Amino acid sequence: MSAVIIVLIILVVLVFIALIKTIQVIPQASAAIVERFGRYTRTLNAGLNIVVPFIDSIRNRIDLREQVVPFPPQPVITQDNLVVNIDTVIYYQVTDARAATYEVASYIQAIEQLTVTTLRNIIGGMDLERTLTSREEINAALRGVLDEATGKWGIRVNRVELKAIEPPTSIQDSMEKQMRAERDKRAAILTAEGTRQSAILTAEGEKQSAILRAEGEAKAAALKAEGEAQAVRTVFEAIHAGDPDQKLLSYQYLQMLPKIAEGDANKLWIVPSEIGDALKGLSGAFGNVGGGTPGFNVKDIPSARRDEPTVD
């Protein structure tokens, strides 16, 4: 009786194990390779799948999502014989689970080695300067070669990126010095241009100021001359309207004599010939009025002689 129970228990366990092996649940964005007696039978897609227990076996489960694989820095020689270390990142996706399982032993390792060899071929035809400035070109060339080579492995390379391009330390120092010199040169050029522009603007300002000042002085002189002309014209019109006689003119001559002699620098002055005539007219006027002035004679004045200079 106990032996029968043991057998039944064993059968139940075997049935339970068989059920577990029969029902296979594949997650979304995944695939499984089924082999029957070591031979590929089919590919299980996402969802609930039924297999023959103890006959069919799951060989490999593959993630169909896009994968990101960084590769360590690889030394590469440029066209000008400089060694640079390049880090790469590959974005790939498995499109055929069967080919990825049976066409290549390890597609990750195969992609890495293919990337290194292709990268050396591409960088070998470029100098250092072009290598540092042509990342997009290198990425496109590398992606084209990898996508073509990995197509038969059931893998699609979506993108290739160069993480870093590190030249030798001596080259980095030289490049840093060159860039520093370029920055200093640009700074000096900008400073010189600023000084030149400032000088130009200052000169333009001084020029405009001088022009405006000259225009102002010219207008002021014109207004002053016009005012003096107007004053002379007014005086002349007033004199002409008053119709002065010889007596008044003689009196005005006498009033102007002290003004002519004013100032310490007036050591020599010339008496016009008209003053003598004015004095004669004025003497006659005084003589007519008061019967002559005692002690006053025109001939007694030396300056009354025509055009004779008198020294003070």
TrEMBL record:
Keyword Transmembrane on this protein? yes
Major location, coarse class? membrane
User: SUPFAM superfamilies given for it?
Assistant: Band 7/SPFH domain (SSF117892)
Q: Which domain of life is it from?
A: Bacteria
Keyword list (alphabetical) reads: Membrane, Transmembrane, Transmembrane helix
The record's Pfam families line, in alphabetical order, gives: Band_7
Residue ranges occupied by any Band domain in the UniProt entry: 21-179
The UniProt entry lists membrane topology as:
Single-pass membrane protein
Cellular compartment(s): Membrane
Q: Does the keyword Ubl conjugation apply?
A: no
Q: What's this protein's family per the entry? A: Belongs to the band 7/mec-2 family.
Q: What is this protein called?
A: SPFH domain-containing protein
Q: Which organism is it from?
A: Streptomyces litmocidini
Where is the organism placed in the taxonomic lineage, from the top?
Answer: Bacteria, Bacillati, Actinomycetota, Actinomycetes, Kitasatosporales
